[in-house]
Design goal:
Distance between the termini: 26 Å
Radius of gyration: 20 Å
Strand content: under 5%
Structural class: mainly alpha
CATH topology: Growth Hormone, Chain: A
Number of domains: 1
Order of helices and strands: HHHHHHHHHHHHHHHHHH
Number of strands: 0
Helix content: over 70%
Length: 408
């Protein structure tokens, strides 16, 4: 009740940011459920579909720093509303696609650019401003958790519509859901009326100088490089898990159930890591997530897939999914302040999306060349373990923001 009372003035902004993130993340994470039927109907290969998803992730990643810098100049509301309109346009283009170009523009370029305006970096920056520093990490965990609820609903709904009426009807359902982003972005845009809290020493007056200053800060640089692994592992799963389960002869609905399970446990994981980030070393927690994810990938893909172990695997990965977002965003806010938070989060996220590109396209190329995902999984596990251990080792030596405990 005390938490609710403290957050009451900020609730319209927080609810708008949470809903915007939930729908935008949920829909794009669930596009993989259409891959088997869509590729057969349009006569494109798995690697061509995953090329579109790879383009989406690259567009999102490379445009995110510019979107964050633009928010400082024009405000969050115009940026988020434009992104919402572009998201609906992208989904509509995918719905009407007749070949590779329609899929690449709709599911790829348009949705990727829209995510730069409506995704986690912007939503987290919006949610950071109206709350006190003491509550910030917990609130970021709550908003990050909301990003999971969209997949929890969108994946099963898209699969059911596609199975009953075809993949185009499933995508049409996603177009309708995407319209929700517009009012959500409007309410979240109320943050523009709030003052920016004072920033730590070292803040620069322009985007370029601030970006250079942050990249010369070793903990930020290491965190940014390690973020590559996060994107590679997660997008590999959301893109290729439905295809892997189809290849193994399992019920197509299982892929939707697994993505939904990921979304459900992501809520718990985001809440936990938001809470933990306010009490423990954020960089150390990030490294632990990468190591545990890699161990989970190794266990599942070395075993024979069944409905039971698939859902257990999805639950484990879900718990470790978006918990990185409040940790990364919280560390940036503590270290560099809130004015340039979205831009600096975008720089880190660019590395994440290069990893996403490799996870989506690389997995498709490996499958087309070898007829299995074994080599792709081996690479993902090895790189993940290495990045996690380097992040954890560096966290124990890094200079932390004031008040941030090293271990506890």
């Amino acid at each position: 009740m005390n938490l609710l009372s403290a957050l009451r003035p900020a609730l319209p902004i927080l609810l708008g940011a949470a809903l915007m993130l939930s729908v935008s993340m949920g829909l794009r994470q669930s596009l993989g459920v259409f891959m088997p039927a869509l590729t057969k109907d349009l006569g494109i290969s798995v690697s061509q579909f995953t090329l579109a998803i790879a383009v989406q992730n690259l567009a999102w990643g490379f445009l995110q720093p510019f979107a964050g810098a633009l928010a400082v100049r024009i405000g969050y509301r115009p940026l988020m509303m434009a992104g919402a309109a572009l998201y609906v346009t992208g989904m509509g283009t995918l719905w009407m696609a007749q070949g590779l170009w329609g899929v690449t523009f709709g599911a790829g370029l348009a949705i990727g650019a829209a995510m730069a305006c409506n995704g986690s970096a912007i939503a987290m920056a919006v949610a950071s401003r109206p709350v006190s520093p003491a509550l910030r990490s917990t609130v970021l965990g709550i908003v990050s958790a909301a990003g999971s609820l969209g997949a929890l609903m969108a994946a099963p709904m898209g699969q059911m519509l596609a199975q009953a009426h075809g993949w185009r009807v499933g995508v049409a359902g996603f177009v309708v859901l995407a319209l929700i982003i517009l009012p959500a972005a409007w309410f979240a845009g109320r943050v523009d009326a709030l003052p920016v809290p004072p920033s730590p020493a070292g803040e620069k007056d322009n985007a370029r100088d601030m970006a250079v200053f942050a990249l010369k800060h070793p903990p930020f640089a290491v965190m940014t490089v390690a973020y590559f692994v996060c994107g590679m592992q997660l997008v590999f799963l959301t893109t290729h898990l439905p295809s892997y389960l189809d290849l193994c002869g399992l019920d197509p609905m299982l892929s939707a159930q697994a993505l939904g399970m990921i979304g459900g446990f992501n809520v718990l994981g985001s809440l936990f890591f938001g809470w933990a980030g306010g009490r423990y070393n954020k960089l150390l927690l990030l490294g632990g997530i990468y190591v545990l994810r890699s161990m989970g990938l190794a266990w599942y893909f070395l075993a024979v897939p069944t409905p039971e172990n698939t859902l257990v695997f999805a639950a484990i990965m879900g718990f470790l999914w978006l918990g990185v977002a409040p940790l990364v965003t919280g560390y940036i806010g503590e270290t560099f302040g809130l004015k340039w938070q979205a831009m600096l989060g975008g720089i880190a996220f660019m590395s994440h999306q290069v990893g996403s590109f490799m996870g989506a396209l690389g997995g498709g190329l490996v499958f087309d060349a070898m007829g299995s995902y074994n080599r792709a999984v081996q690479v993902g596990v090895c790189v993940g373990l290495l990045a996690g251990m380097v992040q954890m080792a560096f966290a124990l030596k890094a200079e932390l923001p004031p008040g941030q405990p090293r271990l506890a």
